[in-house]
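Encode chain A's predicted structure.
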Amino acid sequence: MCATRMGDPMAIPEVAVWKFVRLITWMALIIPPGGGSELSRLLRTTKKETVSPVSLRIPIPTEGRRFAASGLTSSRPATEKAAASEDAAAASKTDAEAAKTAAVDARDKAQIAKTDAENARESAENSEANAKTYKESAAESAATAQQYSGKPPKPENGTWWIWDAEKGAYVNTNISCELTGPTGNGIQSIQLTQGNHTPGSTDIYTVTMTDGSKYNIAVYNGLNGTGTGDVLGIHFDLVLPASGWSNGSITVAESRLVADAKYKYLIDAYEASREEYLECSVRPKDISTTGFITFVNDTDPIKDITVNIVRLELSVNAEEGGE
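Encoded structure for chain A:
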């Protein structure tokens, strides 16, 4: 298999051509896009200096041409993969920067949350301390007020003394308590200026005041009584049993009860029965039948009530409306 013309001094051995083809193929694989123009320039320069077009008549073997073609073709996917890898790297870088930014934001938020928590804790501690202080202050104020409530100011040795809670004793204010008030006006004398004390007549008395003013007062002299009567009264007790009330009333028998206009009756409950007497609004009615008296109420008592009755006998003058 001969690749040159015999006897041609410029002929290139087939092995050298094969090596040259392999070199070109390898350079095509490693030269980046846009570098082909530099390779063409290099080849043109090489051809001009070393090999003439006429002398380079050795055909490139079929295997070499295929190898070169496959090498040139396979460089394109490699370039595309390199570009894809570069894009992926850029995307990864962008994602990494975004993750870094998110991490910084999370760190800042965590720091803010930590600061807020510390502030809240300090605020709670301060509130607890303030509450304790207020409680102690309130207790002290209450104790002081209690002291002052039973220790009013008092005059002593011509000055006012007040209670000092801290010292637990009265202290002198040096404020004089010897105060002079306005001059008073009293009665200087009372003299009878008219009348002679005759029963049924009126006497006039003149009252002279310390400021020199005068005024008169009239005193009536009552008539002498002409009748007889039980002026001291008759006293007796009545018991109103709790079981004797019916429809808000009770009637009690007593022989000393006389239905006569010349008698008047004073009725009151004893101390032990007075509360029940008043709460149930117990009250007597007029005596219309001798020997009996009726009491009424608003609420039936649940206890026995004892009342005291004083019967008074009026004189003839009183019955006739005299003085």
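Confidence is low (pLDDT under 50) at residues 1-7, 46-58, 317-323.
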